[in-house]
């Protein structure tokens, strides 16, 4: 008795006067495959690919590369805060910007007055404001190129600072603006790249691992800057801080040029199984058009309540973090009287807590999506609320302590930063979830407002803190506490981690394309080699 595939194949062979050939075993096996029994016009079903492991994988490698990117860039961003202590002559200055040399082997100190030092730090924030423009570029152009260009620009700017600092302060101000502009390119490019490389269930973990590079950069540059400042053998002292920071950026650029990729399909070394897994997982986010031809839907974005809830929540999350990152050493010195050595070590502990929390909370988010019946949207809101409440509560508790409980203040600050890490799978994840195809534009819009808050925050703090008393710092922390608690209401009610209707693409079909001829390809190839009736054989198609 003939099998089904033999019954429909046999007459077509006999129609041309050719008996069914004796096919070799391998070909016979291929003809027995399910795809050979589907008649014309019926698609062969394609089973969804199995989940591809996280370790080892190119997804994990991509997240690690992005972590390295953030670490190198943040070293170049934050090194000025440590270097300016060593490079500026704090005892005297003149309007001619002359330099004083106390040690022949040491690099010359520059004479920047307090206003000029303020311009140095403000220039970086001014560069970040460009994120409003750079955000949508990440959705249209190659994110890999944007990352390489941004890190390279930051590296060149850091090399230029010690070379031109003695010439004119405005050269250094311009260099710091370029560093800020480079940072404005990074964040949207990374978020846009995450939406292409990672399925939705893995994005919070990828973001936690990637953005944790900022904390790693801080932990690396603080002790390194102190050591480089205190020596004169390597570039005379403080210039080495900028050269070492730039070297990390160039090192990353070289690695990323060869290993990084804008999207999985452009990575030559990725396995077919992992590529199919990523493509299938993100198929509903495909708009079917090239990124260059895709217009950013600004009107729906600006009218979207979940988008604005996410923006407000991220700004409220970043505001207290800026307070702690910028002024924690001053607070520990003014209120709790820690000496410089202790201050440097203790100031790094909250940053370390934040990095640990990002990894843990992102893993918890992934675990809850896989092991519980809660929706990703509910999990996102829950973790964000936990982060906001924890950050606000421990900041408030810190204000109740005086110098007699200095060690407890450090513990509370570590806990406040730890809970802040839960915003990564919360409102920060929502930035890439609410409109994956336009995550770069939304990220740029969000961090434009974050940059504005970064300019306002130190201004408010400087106005409040005049003598460095415990009461003044309590007012600063209480303001940050109120700001930190706002997302508990805003994001819980109006936030979302689900794609908006206007942000959904046209899903790619998950079924295989039908054969143009019901005869399997191997059979056609066999018949086409026959010379008896070549024309008729080709009309099978």
Automatic annotation (TrEMBL):
The keyword Transmembrane applies. The keyword Membrane applies. Signal peptide: none annotated. Residues 67-499 form the Major facilitator superfamily (MFS) profile domain. One of its GO terms (biological process) is monoatomic anion transport. It is found in: Membrane. InterPro entries: MFS (IPR011701), MFS_dom (IPR020846), MFS_Na/Anion_cotransporter (IPR050382), MFS_trans_sf (IPR036259). It is a multi-pass membrane protein. Keywords: Membrane, Transmembrane, Transmembrane helix. PROSITE patterns: MFS. Its main location: membrane. One of its GO terms (molecular function) is transmembrane transporter activity. One of its GO terms (cellular component) is membrane. The chain crosses the membrane at residues 58-76, 119-138, 145-165, 240-259, 307-332, 344-361, 382-400, 406-422, 429-455, 475-494. This is Major facilitator superfamily (MFS) profile domain-containing protein. It comes from Steinernema carpocapsae (Entomopathogenic nematode).
């Amino acid at each position: 008795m003939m099998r089904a595939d033999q019954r429909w194949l046999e007459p077509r062979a006999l129609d041309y006067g050719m008996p069914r050939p004796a096919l070799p075993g391998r070909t016979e096996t291929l003809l027995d495959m399910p795809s050979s029994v589907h008649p014309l016009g019926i698609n062969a079903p394609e089973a969804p690919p199995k989940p591809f492991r996280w370790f080892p994988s190119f997804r994990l490698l991509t997240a690690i590369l992005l972590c390295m990117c953030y670490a190198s860039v943040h070293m170049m961003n934050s090194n000025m805060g440590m270097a300016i202590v060593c490079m500026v002559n704090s005892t005297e200055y003149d309007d001619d910007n002359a330099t004083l040399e106390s040690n022949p082997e040491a690099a010359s100190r520059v004479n920047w007055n307090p206003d000029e030092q303020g311009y140095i730090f403000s220039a970086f924030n001014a560069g970040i404001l460009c994120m409003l423009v750079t955000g949508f570029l990440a959705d249209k152009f190659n994110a890999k190129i944007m990352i390489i260009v941004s890190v390279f620009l930051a590296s060149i700017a850091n090399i230029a600072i010690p070379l031109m600092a003695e010439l004119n302060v405005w050269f250094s101000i311009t260099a710091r603006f370029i560093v800020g502009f480079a940072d404005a390119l990074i964040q949207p490019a990374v978020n846009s790249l995450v939406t292409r490389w990672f399925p939705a269930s893995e994005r919070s973990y990828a973001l936690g691992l990637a953005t944790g590079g900022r904390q790693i950069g801080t932990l690396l540059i603080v002790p390194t800057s102190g050591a480089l400042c205190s020596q004169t053998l390597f570039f005379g002292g403080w210039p080495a801080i900028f050269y070492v920071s730039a070297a990390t950026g160039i090192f990353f650029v070289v690695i990323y040029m060869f290993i990084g990729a804008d999207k999985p399909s452009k990575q030559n070394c990725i396995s077919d199984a992992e590529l199919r897994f990523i493509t299938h997982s993100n198929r509903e986010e495909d708009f079917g058009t090239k990124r260059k031809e895709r217009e950013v839907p600004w009107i729906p974005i600006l009218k979207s309540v979940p988008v604005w809830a996410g923006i407000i929540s991220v700004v409220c999350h970043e505001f207290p973090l800026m307070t702690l990152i910028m002024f924690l050493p001053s607070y520990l010195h003014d209120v709790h009287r820690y000496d410089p050595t202790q201050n440097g070590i203790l100031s790094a502990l909250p940053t370390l807590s934040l990095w640990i929390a990002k990894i843990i909370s992102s893993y918890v988010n992934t675990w809850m999506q896989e092991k519980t019946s809660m929706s990703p949207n509910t999990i996102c809101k829950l973790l964000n609320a936990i982060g906001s409440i924890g950050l606000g509560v421990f900041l408030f508790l810190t204000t109740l302590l005086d110098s007699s409980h200095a060690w407890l203040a450090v513990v509370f600050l570590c806990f406040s930063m730890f809970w802040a890490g839960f915003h990564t799978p919360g409102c920060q994840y929502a930035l890439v979830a609410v409109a994956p195809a336009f995550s770069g534009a939304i990220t740029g819009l969000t961090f434009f407002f974050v940059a504005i808050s970064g300019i306002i925050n130190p201004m408010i703090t400087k106005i409040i803190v005049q003598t460095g008393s415990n009461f003044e710092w309590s007012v600063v922390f209480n303001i940050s506490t109120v700001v930190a608690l706002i997302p508990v209401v805003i994001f819980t009610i109006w936030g979302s981690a689900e794609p908006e209707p206007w942000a959904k693409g046209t899903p790619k079909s998950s079924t295989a394309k039908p054969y143009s001829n019901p005869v399997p390809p191997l059979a056609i190839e066999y018949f086409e080699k026959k010379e008896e009736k070549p024309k008729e054989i080709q009309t099978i198609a």
